[in-house]
């Protein structure tokens, strides 16, 4: 191997390491924010009034689930760093339980920003056979963006629907924000980043988040789509085949 080939190999490995570190930093924000938010709520609400047993259990449950999610993300990223690939571990996932659990991790952020979180799941929505860690990362990215760019008084909704035409299912994250300019939207879907100073200041973080979502949905065997709703806001769709 020539010196040039060695340099190219080292350069590619360095780029992969940086990309993995960026992804890791991006993915751990949601569970860490939940840990900080709910522990702060417990500290704040404990005095001068006492928390009810139900409140203590509820806060502790979110902290516990967020800690478990954080651990699973760390294990997945460590495995990827060692093996050089993402290992998909599919299992049955009850979306009717999975959806409210992930929404609870954003409860503090939504409350602080005056945003209502909502979800609707079709009665005929089947049990998912997918990787729950990767699905959590996908939905976390979409929910984080939706909350970040939805104004006070707005709403973020998660939906689960059947797609009988394509023998699949659809998970939707929809917000009532300002939407994304068409040129920016096209750039994001191509893996690009926001370039204008105005949009960069408002949409910082969209590029990496959307690119990661698209890549992870593909790993799950699905397809990712994002568009502006006619009524305003953004609609992000995750299309997966039925098991």
From TrEMBL:
Transmembrane segment boundaries: none
Assigned keywords, A-Z: Kinase, Phosphoprotein, Transferase, Two-component regulatory system
Enzyme class, spelled out: transferase
EC number annotated for this UniProt entry: 2.7.13.3
Family matches, as SMART domains: HATPase_c, HisKA
UniProt-recorded Gene Ontology molecular function terms: phosphorelay sensor kinase activity
Record-annotated Histidine kinase domain positions: 23-243
Recorded catalytic activity of this chain's protein: ATP + protein L-histidine = ADP + protein N-phospho-L-histidine
UniProt name for this protein: histidine kinase
Species this chain originates from: Magnetovibrio blakemorei
């Amino acid at each position: 191997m020539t010196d040039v080939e060695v340099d190219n190999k080292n350069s590619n490995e360095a780029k992969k390491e940086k990309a993995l570190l960026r992804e890791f930093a991006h993915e751990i924000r949601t569970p860490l924010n939940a840990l900080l938010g709910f522990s702060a709520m417990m500290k704040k609400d404990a005095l001068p009034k006492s928390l009810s047993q139900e409140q203590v259990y509820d806060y502790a449950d979110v902290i516990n689930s967020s800690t478990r999610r954080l651990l699973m993300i760390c294990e997945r990223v460590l495995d990827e760093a060692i093996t050089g690939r993402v290992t998909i571990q599919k299992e049955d996932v009850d979306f009717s339980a999975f959806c409210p659990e992930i929404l609870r991790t954003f409860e503090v952020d939504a409350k602080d920003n005056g945003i209502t979180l909502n979800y609707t799941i079709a009665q005929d929505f089947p049990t998912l056979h997918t990787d729950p860690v990767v699905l959590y990362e996908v939905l976390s990215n979409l929910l984080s963006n939706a909350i970040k760019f939805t104004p006070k008084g707005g709403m973020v909704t998660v939906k689960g629907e059947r797609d009988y035409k394509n023998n699949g299912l659809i998970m939707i994250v929809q917000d009532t924000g300002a939407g994304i300019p068409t040129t920016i939207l096209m750039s994001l879907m191509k893996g690009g980043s926001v370039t204008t100073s105005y949009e960069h200041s408002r949409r910082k973080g969209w590029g990496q988040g959307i690119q990661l979502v698209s890549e992870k949905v593909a790993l799950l065997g699905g397809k990712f789509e994002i568009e502006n709703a006619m009524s305003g806001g953004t609609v992000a769709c995750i299309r997966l085949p039925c098991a």
